[in-house]
Design brief:
Helix 4 (88-105) crosses helix 5. The chain has one domain. The strands form three sheets. Strands 2-1-5-8 form a four-stranded parallel β-sheet. Strands 3-4 form a two-stranded antiparallel ribbon. The chain is globular. Helices cover 24% and strands 21% of the residues. The longest helix is centred in the middle third of the chain and has 18 residues, at 88-105. The chain contains five helices and eight strands, in the order E-H-E-H-E-H-E-H-E-E-E-H-E. Helix 1 links the parallel strand 1 and strand 2. The chain is an alpha/beta fold.
């Protein structure tokens, strides 16, 4: 509770690259300064699911193959790097680790980097093209009742985590 007796807004899971951490596949960040306003007054939980899954930085770029992140979780699709190596296990492990951090931190929402095979919210690189769909972490968070937004969000609704 805040000093005024109102519930405090929940914690927010955020793609670490959006906060300036150099953890993208190419060793760069995607610092998004306008998120400072959106996240003001909230506890931020920064994560890079690909690093949490054991992939280093930099790393070969990856894309989804055969479906989006939900299909990867269901075992109906996979994730491959540019060298053709199957990285499904690392992506699922990283998504599960990020979910564990979200749950432990009481995250009610997430802001993730769109187009990423892990964090894509509306579009992901799949089967050689940028297509509608969600990344592996996004699919897992949504399955657990955590609301997911991309980096263009300008305001987060004040809500508390729903029980799945």
């Amino acid at each position: 509770m805040s000093e005024k007796g109102k519930p405090e807004p929940g914690a927010v899971l955020v793609s670490a690259c959006l906060l300036g951490r150099r953890c993208r596949f190419d060793g760069r960040d995607k610092l998004t300064p306008q998120l400072g306003v959106v996240l003001e007054g909230r506890r931020v939980i920064p994560v890079c699911p690909e690093e949490l899954g054991g992939l280093g930085t930099p790393r070969p770029p990856c894309q989804l193959q055969g479906g989006d992140g939900a299909a990867v979780l269901d075992g109906d699709a996979t994730v491959v790097d540019v060298d053709g190596n199957d990285r499904r296990a690392e992506f699922v492990k990283g998504a599960e680790a990020a979910l564990a951090e979200a749950v432990a931190g009481g995250a009610t929402q997430a802001i993730l980097k769109d187009h990423s095979p892990s964090c894509g919210v509306r579009k992901v690189y799949r089967d050689g093209a940028l297509l509608p769909g969600e990344g592996v972490l996004t699919a897992l968070l949504r399955r657990h009742g955590i609301s997911v937004h991309d980096e263009t969000v300008t305001r987060l609704p004040s809500r508390h985590r729903k029980k799945p």
